[in-house]
Amino acid sequence: FRWNWIVVLASGDDYGRENGHLLSQRLAHRDICIAFQETLPTPQPDQTMTPQDQERLEAIVGKLQQSTARVVVVFSPELALHNFFREVLRQNFTGAVWIASESWAIDPVLHNLTELQRAGTFLGITTQSVPIPGFSEFRVRRSRLGRPALNRSSGGATCNQECDTCLNTTESFN
């Protein structure tokens, strides 16, 4: 794509920090420069945004508006991005190429923000699956050995992911 000038946005949790740092290290060996990096405020699931978090989002989107970089790589859980993209739309930031990490690339809340297409083009990425040698054979062998009886609560059956039904469902995806 010949992108050589990008912005990196990351959540302040381990996922955002570690992936943002890893990307910075890898880009240092290529002809790609980071215009700026910012940490997105990440509210807890049961909390509303604080006024300080809202001001921070406004400042980040304002910085995006002023930057000549139009490729934005975002490492963040989807929860932090709901308010962020609402702010992107409110400030009418358009024309960017957004690189979506696997944690939010298929988020239904963001997909239902119909106006989001105005913000630009979205490309979702995911990590490559790495097989663990012998893991599938271990699971199948374990299913044949038998397991302790499941706990039952108040007369109804429960599933603790150790039952044959769960194992058979998992095997069907392999």
UniProtKB/TrEMBL annotation:
Pfam families: ANF_receptor. Residues 1-141 form the Receptor ligand binding region domain. GO terms for cellular component: plasma membrane. Keywords: Cell membrane, G-protein coupled receptor, Glycoprotein, Membrane, Receptor, Signal, Transducer, Transmembrane, Transmembrane helix. GO terms for molecular function: G protein-coupled receptor activity; L-glutamate gamma-semialdehyde dehydrogenase activity. InterPro entries: ANF_lig-bd_rcpt, Peripla_BP_I. The keyword Metal-binding does not apply. Its main location: membrane. It is found in: Cell membrane. The keyword Transcription regulation does not apply. This is Taste receptor type 1 member 2. It comes from Ovis aries (Sheep).
